[in-house]
Amino acid sequence: MKQIYAWYRKHITGAIFVGLILGICTGLFLAGRFGLILTVTSLLGGIYMNALNLMIFPLVFCSIVMGICSIGNIRTTGKITGSAMIFFLSTTALASLAGLIIPRLIHLGKGVSFEMATSDIQATDMSNILDTIKNLIPSNPIAAFANGNMLQVLVFAVIVGFALIAVGEKGNPLVKVIDSLNEVCLKVISTVMYFTPIGVFCTIVPVVEANGTETIISLATQLIILYIAFFGFAIIVYGLAVKIIGKESPVRFFKAIMPAALNAFGTCSSSATIPISKQCMEEDMGVSNQITSIAIPLGATVNMDAVSILMSFMIMFFANACGINVSVSMMVIILLANVLLSVGTPGIPGGAIASFAALATMAGLPAGIMGVYISINTLCDMGATCVNVIGDLACCVVLKEKIKLKKD
After folding, report:
1. Contact criterion met (CB below 8 Å) for 64 and 297
2. How many CB atoms lie within 10 A of CB 37?
């Protein structure tokens, strides 16, 4: 049994990739027919996503608390958090710059036209941004878990972690309870991971089937350009960061993170990929649990590099397609607003739709473009989530070199 597990663990990347390709082919084949098969794949995909989500918030809370407690030093914990934030903000600035320049250089969206669709999505306004800042500290931690507010869970975990360090030995019983819960979460998640290839297959099939070949073909050029920008950014920026700052081989890095990247691509969820990300970093790259327990959940919440690129590309694409001129100054304002909107955006499929509605309103785009955007959102979100997760893991490698800690 151990030999079978070892073989499967070694080849799981290939199995996930096969599941992804088969899912795309099956989705195209099922377009408009064989509803029963689509129903089954949707059901299994939903079960897989629910199983992943089952332990995400308890795992994030416990891993952050244990990460802080295992360091046992507020100064070191603050150094990890501060260094991670500097990395994420720096790469987000580069991503925003790329998103501002590239679409203008290539005149993205020129010559494209489409009929407007309607949408019931409401824009996220400035009051919601202010509410996000005001509600950083949850008044009801249980509600934060129940409502899936990752930002509040992160803040609550940090508060509890620092408090346990402050009270010393009196907090040891609670530390042991949280440690036990953390092990249970890891066990459940690691069991679910065995089914990742099947889960990716089942989540991709309805996505491709729902969009259909016409939508995919009509927007293929724009999507290809977007994906070139996504992965060009990942290879150049993250690859250089890993090589120059992290002192690691980019080839080894990208090979090690492939399971997490493919899972993020297939599920469109950075939160659901947290367990796989931790496993890739700790087992394959030798990064300490003390770093991954803080940097990865933090990145899943605040690292939105690819989303910055995505929003810039989509705003410029729809503006040009609709014949609307968006000035450079307006794009800068939109990008700054996007950074604020990104903080607290749930790392789940479709989490950025309301943010895009807000940015589109700021750019003066017609409300009807939301229907078109929603039709391709998942196809865009897949690549964006994948690149965001790669950025989280690149941060871990950089912190491993800059902050010397022993691997647990």
Report:
1. yes
2. 14
